[in-house]
Amino acid sequence: MSLTAGVVAVQGDVSEHGAAVERAADAHGRDVDVVEIRQSGTVPDCDLLVLPGGESTTISRLLHSEGIAPEITDHVGDGKPVLATCAGLIVTATDAADERVEPLGLVDVTVERNAFGRQKDSFEAPLDVAGLDDPFPAVFIRAPLIDAVGDAVEVLAAWDGRPVAVRDGPVVGLSFHPELTGDSRLHDLAFFGDET
Ligand code: GLN
Ligand 1 center to residue 32 CA distance, Å? Predict the structure, then answer.
């Protein structure tokens, strides 16, 4: 049966995520339809979701005003997987430490926006990730720092001693952008990890 993958597209980068999901699905012999989510009513049809990077204040505002936020909460409540990256991680956090972001509280972490960006806006680093055999080329773009993680949160990777990849139940949250290098192993881990 074909899967439906929703890429939240209210703002930010979306097309590379769709391509990465298609590659990951293909590697597992699964067909996938990728749909872009800009309004309510689509998330309930989705088997898996990506919350991409972008500008978390804008994404948060639009998720709430469009009525998409409670649908994402229900999706996670049903145990369906989500990959939340960079700004996506900020909006799914428990605490975004910024009153302009109304976080969804789906990943039990506290984040600090733009914390990696002060000295250098963007960098790529080889990252050891639990569950992957070889380092992942992680692209950090004005990335959030994960300040604190809840007891139920599994840290999948750290950079400079700080968590940058976490799993909280069905949600994998990444500080960085996994979609920009053509390496779809983290989409694979988030969505098909249990099937291998
Ligand atoms: N700096 C952005 C924010 O705080 C996140 C950057 C990104 O998603 N690449 O919303």
Answer: 28
